[in-house]
Amino acid sequence: MGRTGALRRATAAALVGAVAAAAGGCAYLDVKQREWIFRAQREVHATPADHGLRHEELWLAVRGAGAGAERVHAWWIPAASADAPALLYLHGSRWSLSNNLFRIARFQRMGFSVLAIDYRGFGKSDGDLPSEEQVYADAQAAWDHLRQREPDPARRFVYGHSLGGAVAIDLASKNRDVAGLIVEATFTSMRDMAAAIGYGALPLGAVLTQRFDSIDKVPRVGAPVLFVHGTADRFVPAAMSERLFAAAPEPKRLLLVESAGHSNATYVAFERYVAAVRELVALAAERAPGRDRTRDAVAARPG
Fold first, then answer.
1. How confident is the model over 162-172, as pLDDT tens digits?
2. pTM above 0.85, yes or no
3. Interior CA angle at 128 toward 70 and 141, to 5°?
4. 3-class DSSP state for residue 151?
């Protein structure tokens, strides 16, 4: 089953372990869930320069309860055009930024300037074991930085893949200055993931500490949303994106990519993918009267 099979097995282990560990104490239960869900990797084996991309290496401070002076490592990859919109890239579990470079590079070549971060515990970022609340705080710190890079809210977008999609939905539900949201191959909630892989009968509601309840948050997203999902995704069922799409307010679009798996939608249907992204950017421009340069900056790029 490859990478998606490994992801499925790890999630199953997390869910079964959550119930099995409940009797051992809440602290132990929380730690084991975080280990199994995030499976954070430290390896950094490539940079944007390996893809021919000019970039700036950043360290963004994350402040708040329990965060202290910890930092997240980030790359700022500017677009060729000074009028380009900016995109915050939020990756999924296990893999660090290095393993996401192929997708990051594609967004930059679509015409976006890209700010991509590793959550704490991943790659070069500070911290050890991520948690749901920590990755939300990391994304907020990155969004605050993106505001400085791009002062115009009509040009600020968020993208999240898989687990990063849940982080992106949380961020967009809390910040009204998101111009557009793209979520790919993401799920409705961690509890729903349990049911999808056959563990719905377990009493998980009382023991899950990492919930990622995107289905409850997506109705609060005020930006246009593009949902992307491969119909052959063997880890996260495409029906979850359909449910998120149904729960999201207008304007929205659902792009189901036939034969695509968990990570390769941009390869299987690149032209359709780019067209859907351009449509999203156009929608964002329409919601900001008199501001159409964002739309033109993306539409002019070949992708």
1. 999 999 999 99
2. yes
3. 35
4. coil
